[in-house]
Hints:
- The structure is a single chain.
- By secondary structure, this protein is α+β, with helices and mostly antiparallel strands.
- The protein has one domain (2-57).
- It is 21% helix and 12% strand.
- It contains 2 helices and 2 strands; from the N terminus they run αββα.
- A two-stranded parallel sheet has the order 1-2.
- The longest helix is centred in the last third of the chain and has 10 residues, at 41-50.
- It is elongated.
Amino acid sequence: CSMCLAMNDDNLAPGERCASTSNRNFEGRQGKGGRTHLVSPEMAAAAALAGHFVDVRNLNKKGANV
Length: 66
């Protein structure tokens, strides 16, 4: 849970983005200047695999890249 609260050194640097499955998001929660995007577990997994945000609704379409 340390990233969830930006505890210790586990936080976002200014300008970094995070896909979070947390149910809370307010400015600076995961690091000053970082951006937290609340996503479903499916979206978080797809983003982790792709290395960027993807729309899971398109994953079953022919030619979809992840």
